[in-house]
Model the fold of this input.
Amino acid sequence: MKRLLLLPLLLGGCAGAPQLHEVKEVYFCAADECGPAGRRQSGADMLQAIYRLLKANEGKDFKICESDPKTRSCDKEGVSYFVMGGPIPGLGSASSGMMSEVKLDSMAQTVHSRMDSHLRFVGVPLACAGHASTVTVRSADEITMMDDPYYCNWAGIGNMTASFSFAVEFIDLDKGRIGGYWSHAVAGNAAGKGSGYGVLEFPVRMPAGENWLGK
Amino acid sequence: MLCAALALAPACAQSQAQRAEVFVQLGHRSAVTAVAFSPDGQKIASAGLDGVVKLWEVESGRVAATLEGRAGSILALAWSPDGSALVGASRDRALQHWDARSGALLGTYRGHDSVVLAVAFLPDGQQFVSASYDRTVRLWRLGRTDASVEIARHAEPVRALDVSRDGSMIATVGEDRVIKLLHGANRSSIELARLESAALSVRLSPAGGELAVGAQDGTVRLWALAGERGNAGAPRVLRGHAGPVNALAYSADGRLLASASGDGSVRIWDPAAGRELVSLAGGGAQNAVAFSAATPPATRSLRVSLRTLIAAGGLDHAVRVWTAPEGEAREILRSRTTEIRALEFAPGGAALAAAGGDEVRLWDTARGQVSKLLKGHGGPVDAVRFSADGATLATASQDGTVRLFDHPSGREAARLDARAGAVFSVALAPDGAGLASGGRDSVVRLWDVRSGSVARELRGHAAAVRDLAYSADGRLLASASNDDSVRLWDVPSGRALHVLKGHANRVNAVRFTADGARLVSASEDSTLRVWDARSGAQLAVLHGHQGPVKSLAISKAGQLVSASVDGTAGVWSLAEAKLLQRVPLRAGQLQSVALSENGLAAAAGDAGVTVLLGAQDAQERVRLFGFADGEWVSIVPQGQFHASPDGARHLNVRVGERVHGLEQFLESFLRPDVVAAAFAPGAPPAAVPEVKPPPAAVPEVKPPPAAVPEVKPPPPVAVPGAAPQRRELAEVAPAPDVAIEGMPAEVAGGEVNVTLRISDRGGGIGDVRIYLNGSAIVNDRAAERAPGLAPGGSRAVSSERNYLLRLVEGRNAIRAAAFNADNTMRSADAVHELVARPPGERRPSLHAVVVGIQEFVNPRLQLSYSVADANLFAGVLEARARGLFETVNVRRLLTPAQTTRAAIAEAIAGVRERIGPDDLFVFFVASHGTVDEGEYYLLTSNVGSTSTERLRRDALGERDLRDLLGNIPATKKLIVLDTCNAGRLGEVLRVATRGMEEDRAAKVLSRAVGSTVLAAASSLQEAIEGYQGHGLFSYVVSEALTGKADYDRDGFVKTTELALYVDNEVPELAERVFRFKQFPIVSPTGMGFPVTRISP
Done:
């Protein structure tokens, strides 16, 4: 699902709006049942589901995987895309992250957190600033995750701004997964942009017995 | 064929467009996001996250059409002002434009960069505006799908917009909390206000002086508008909602405002007073609300009042309709079926268990009908399995229990409860002594069925166990789990033999091949995998489905089928590990599939319909519908169906642009025998028995009779040499429209002249029927009139007919209906109620025609007890009815001369002259009965040969009986048919479906005449042996009337009691005396009333 862009010089640094239109319907698994979210869950249910999952994983690293809407599993750790790092062409990748300060704003239908993203360029880690990340749930099948643009430095010499957006296509509370269509971009000394289908896999799952969505 | 050859001919085009289509009312399968009344108020359009638009008829509550979208969820809808077009705002960045009449998708409009959230037409009907997640508002012109103009932009997604009635103002609101007004031709923009929370909905009042905004904080804010700048002061705030206000609507006169909220309520406000009038409970969060137009819909009935209606939709997939402002509930528009989660055939294929919701339906596949509805579970049933001997059905439910039901009795024999939470899976060991269950707690439990105790627990899975399967020898057990693995267990030792890993997601199903060498699993990862049962090695990965695979089945011969949420059944070659065929079933997202041992495959899912296919040819045989209220229908692709008493009402048939209930086709298409034949092993997919040719040429029209039409013995329909035709429901031409015209609400006398306006809709005009208080009193047969309203309907004709009806004192409910020219489709009823005050008082009388036919032209048909039965019945009536009626007039027809076809018809017609509307009419006959080519015949004394052609000519057919009995102008009728089945003489009948066809005939007769019908198709043996010197059925009926059926001890035997007594006693006596299973046919219809009096 990775989409490499061949014209890096033309790339901007904005991940753009989440690719909500790619999401036909949000597929939702909870309490050992799977099905379209709009069938049984309201937007408020989904907001609670996401909040509880993220809260349970506060301060813990989660995996970012390449995936496919047919499998919705972690097919390969890390997502990557082509980046022109000054004169150096190479692959930029994101393989994990961590959320902290997870807060629910029911009225605004959002979950706010502080995100630490672990990025690499040609295998070398970037030092990135923590930044705000917001999950917005407008309805059971209109769920987005947007990171505020954040600063990164590569090997002390490359300064860039990164941005990330995510249109949620599935949530699996039992397996601690959130999947969807991601867009990531960097701009500055390095420039690149990529998008695809991926999964955020959290270490703490929501056991069915504790899962109020079993209804 | 002709139309294919003349495809350009307008008449053919029309005829093609009018092909009848049967469909079940499914409703939305996800949350409803938008509702809108058509400008004429006749339809409600609703849209949902499921990506379709549904058009509902306001009057009938039926789905008129489902408009399929191609751009994902639809989030908003707008009708063009003239009602010809519908535009939907879609997830896939597009707007879609449908022809509201044909349902055709005319265009997909692209230009937005993200999800489109709102849409509204401008008054010219040629332009519309849209709002998007991409923060823009765009203006479009119908027909120009790729040209739009950005007319406004917000800083955040634009959630809603509205256009003023004159088109001069557009209001938009967004997540940036800003309310904008766009004025004039250049759409100059001003910021009216900025809220403290996101604005989700907006409406301009019809007069344009007010703006309402619904907000995330649960408030509705009202601004008074004046001038181009809005001049808005502080808004008035309506509080009451406890959740976001997702939608708003003004009534057409602007005096009411409705709000739909995430708190689950719909509230109606008086905006002028700022007061809440009523709060209505929706089913979960409400996303959409709309008022009907000011002009009330023109209706044929009084079902829809002239009041304003309000519709709302939300999380529970339903559209709710209330009156406004009262909030009286009118209708809930939604699916009439429940999702089917599990299917299983009994060994041999004689029964099919289908689990939907908390219940399991058992379908009798020999008869094509529901035989039992198993209740008791307190949660969804996720699995059903038969024991190897078919005597037990095990069910697993999320209520935490496994239950064992005796099959076929349906008695709950045992309940297994490990108190370990939801149970998702169950399997019965081949020896019947063991049972395995698995559920949410990840443990596989092996039960001792006899003691009901857990014999062993198998632990190892890390997540819920979704499915279980024993190998044929019972030594191996496979468990499929949400932990993405399959485990293989040695049953005797409980040891885990292998953990089969490979699936990338949950494993939903697992089955062994018949030889036990391999097993196959199905997964959420959209694949099936084949494993070696001995080594646990993965042998193959089967790709082909486009979504999670929920179920699989393997036949003894090695055929593999699968069911996926992609809506298809997969047919695989296990040997070659390849997909042979993906069969789209039009049954929603599939959850379960099963194979029978006699060559059928069944698949079902969220649409609640089970599709039966030939396992080899994958051709559809039958669709089975079980409805939420317990009713059911089974129907073959050609339209012949079998149904529970009210089941047909739940299926819709579209003819042209109109939608009807399947019950309007009941008299022609109720064919349990055809459905049963489709279940039979080896039946061809299009197995439709021959159907009678249509009647001979229809004579010309005579002026309609001014009084009750004369009924003559119906002419035989002779079609020598005519080739049998196959009639399909899809080819039925539409029934006419019927209206009762110019009727008073009250009459002083005892008669009224009824004028019917009958409008041909292209199918011609056939029989016309009038019911008084539920009983047919006029059956104006087309063949008796001279119609001129030719079948085929190349010209639309409107006809006026007059009938003089005699009325009962007090309330008279008159229903009128007409058939199309070939009497295959009945119109919707026209209804009128009036009060009559006839002069004087008169006690009702009883008129009976009692027929006993013992001797026939064909001596082989000789019967022994028919005359005695008739005399017994007549005697009981004469003795026991006297105290109840003014006079008791029993006419006995007992000799061969009195019991010819013509003589019986004449005797019944004679009663018509003497009987009044308050009187009781009883028709009793003891004779032979038979069914040939789907039509019931009562054999009269003049019958010699029982060949089809001679039966039509010599016997009284069911249509003849309908005509004769349907023209008796009494509101109380009782029909008793004790007919020994001539089929046992071996001359004509298909014995396999005996009884079923008589049952159909009785139901149709009962419905057509509006009378209680008691009937028995007794066996020849019973007829020969007799019981107490009589036929058993007649004896029981007579005993009932002498007092044994007076259950409530009020001194009278009423028709309801009579039916109950006969239904109870006949089977018991038949079993005891003859060792036969004999079930009478009891079809109570119309009014219940006393027939005999027991105490003086």
Summary: The two ends of chain A are 35 Å apart (CA to CA). Residues 1-12 of chain A have pLDDT under 50 and may be disordered. Chain A touches chain B at residues 17, 20-21, 23-25, 29, 31-32, 34-36, 38-39, 41-44, 70-73, 75, 107-109, 139-142, 174, 208-209, 214 (CB under 8 Å). The longest strand of chain A covers residues 88-105.
